[in-house]
Backbone:
């Protein structure tokens, strides 16, 4: 291929390459905006986020129209607005960064890599004792004894559990029931389960700041939803008033679950091969 022919070919193809890069650029920006919106949805930060996004779009519009002075004013306002967001919403930004770090990190090898590991390592991965947790939830629900149970998955919860009393034990339904008995000193706060064992009690969790929760939900449900907003943990709640079982997971609260529903969810998310 002669240099002249190669140049002509590049001249013909370069506009399409430029257009493709611009499409990818817009798609990536859209994904980032959508992800930030999902993380801030229902919190006090969402009006500020939407307001700043609107000002940014107006700034780009006046810049394209050649309105230099208005563009400079809006550009300075956006820069100051970002600084104000960092100062005012530092707690929300801290949780946002923790969430990104938790979900971007690889806590377990992928399935294809597990097949290449020695057989003894695969056998060491015990199934989660679903029936023990389901039995405890069912009995606590029938007695209307409030409970808050955290089951860790991939996210590291140590950054989000503000304080707790260390307790390492195997997972048994009678133990869970005894912890949440009204006369037990450990019934306040949450029970923390990780890597197939009980790891702590009396756990203090971040409370959700969502403005869209029903007024009848108490602090247990708000704490469960607060942890689910920043981690992928399963947070089970038993209402002390009604005895209903709820699950907070991935920023959603599922209420009035039957024990069979709890069993299916835990098998699906914790023991996918056994479910």
Residues:
């Amino acid at each position: 291929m002669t240099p002249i022919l190669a140049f002509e070919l590049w001249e013909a193809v370069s506009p399409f390459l430029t257009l493709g890069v611009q499409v990818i650029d817009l798609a990536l920006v859209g994904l980032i905006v959508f992800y930030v919106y999902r993380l801030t949805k229902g919190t006090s930060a969402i009006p500020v986020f939407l307001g700043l996004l609107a000002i940014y779009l107006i700034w780009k519009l006046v810049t394209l129209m050649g309105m230099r002075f208005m563009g400079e004013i809006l550009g300075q306002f956006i820069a100051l607005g970002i600084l104000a967001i960092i100062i005012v919403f530092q707690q929300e930004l801290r949780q946002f960064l923790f969430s990104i770090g938790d979900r971007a990190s690889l806590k377990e090898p992928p399935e294809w890599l597990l097949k290449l590991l020695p057989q003894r390592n695969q056998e060491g991965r015990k199934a989660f004792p679903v029936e023990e947790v389901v039995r405890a939830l069912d009995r606590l629900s029938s007695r209307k004894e409030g409970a808050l149970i955290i089951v860790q998955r991939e996210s590291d919860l140590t950054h989000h559990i503000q304080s707790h009393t260390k307790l390492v034990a195997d997972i048994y339904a009678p133990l869970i029931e005894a912890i949440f008995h009204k006369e037990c000193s450990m019934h306040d706060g949450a029970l923390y389960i990780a890597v197939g064992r009980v790891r702590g009690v009396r756990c203090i969790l971040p409370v959700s700041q969502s403005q869209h929760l029903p007024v009848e939900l108490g602090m247990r449900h708000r704490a469960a939803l607060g942890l689910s907003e920043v981690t992928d943990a399963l947070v089970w709640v038993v209402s002390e008033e009604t005895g209903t079982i709820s699950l907070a997971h991935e920023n959603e609260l599922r209420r009035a679950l039957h024990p069979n529903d709890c069993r299916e969810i835990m098998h699906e998310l914790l023991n996918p091969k056994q479910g």
Remarks:
- The beta strands are 147-151, 163-169, 190-194, 197-204, 234-238, 245-249, 252-257.
- Confidence is low (pLDDT under 50) at residues 104-124.
- The chain is about 55% helix and 15% strand.
